């Protein structure tokens, strides 16, 4: 495939660009994932809570691609945190996907007020040791949550998947990850396609390179070293979003995008999400 890999801290290779399927209904996921696989995507990002692990798995099976060429990520939902519940939830996800192993399993949210992410992660370590998961990681963890995991468990997370786009650039968290050998994976890399793709600075850079604003934003992530998982169900956009490996942004472009940071989240704050 045309997407270069990054090497995770345990030596596993992960494509730097994958296909996200949040908000894609199960019966549409099969078609969307099939379109993505045809376009050259080899990494798929789903989650138990997305309700589309079955559709995703059907597309994978129907593709006829060798399993080892694919990189499949799924995530443990909040209600299933805790050691035993995690083992059960993983089994359910694996069955829905129709797979023998997943490449990356993530704790979807830390839920610090429930204080179960350390036990949850210990179940991840067991599943990893049993060969059912190639790399284990987390999502939406703040550095303080990662510090605690690293102190109380033995496998440093391979990945932290966080909200990251030009309006929320996460500089401090990216630096923390780099210091710990944790890969930064950007969710909502296109800012959910809302105002971001109309920002004049991004539109101007797109014109300059004869590319689309979405391609410019994805290219910015790639040059920063982020893993990205843009979502679309539109075939032309699915193709457009992977076609970002044959041009480069220059220093002036990168500086103009850096200037767009507003520390503005589209999603919940991990420090408080899940508090009841
Ligand atoms: P995104 O930033 O990928 O934006 C997707 C939207 O942008 C599309 O629905 C469409 O409206 C638009 N779009 C896509 N391609 C376009 C193009 N080429 N031109 C114009 N518009 C385009 O948003 P997302 O789906 O929120 O995030 C991507 C993935 O990240 C998700 O599918 C999911 O896999 C993951 N995610 C994870 C979490 C988490 O908590 N871990 C949270 C949200 C999303």
Mind explaining what this structure looks like?
By secondary structure, the protein is of the alpha/beta class. The chain has 10 helices and 10 strands. The protein has a single domain, classed as TIM Barrel. The chain has helices at residues 26-39, 53-63, 83-97, 117-129, 143-152, 171-180, 200-209, 213-224, 235-242, 251-258; strands spanning 5-7, 13-15, 19-20, 43-45, 71-76, 102-107, 133-139, 159-163, 183-187, 227-228. The protein has an 8-stranded parallel sheet. The protein has a two-stranded antiparallel sheet with strand order 1-2. Helix 2 links the parallel strand 4 and strand 5. The mean pLDDT is 97. The structure holds nicotinamide-adenine-dinucleotide (NAD). Nicotinamide-adenine-dinucleotide is lined by residues 20-22, 45, 108, 139-140, 161, 187-193, 197, 212, 214, 229-232, 237, 240-241, 267. The site of nicotinamide-adenine-dinucleotide has 26 residues, from helix 9.
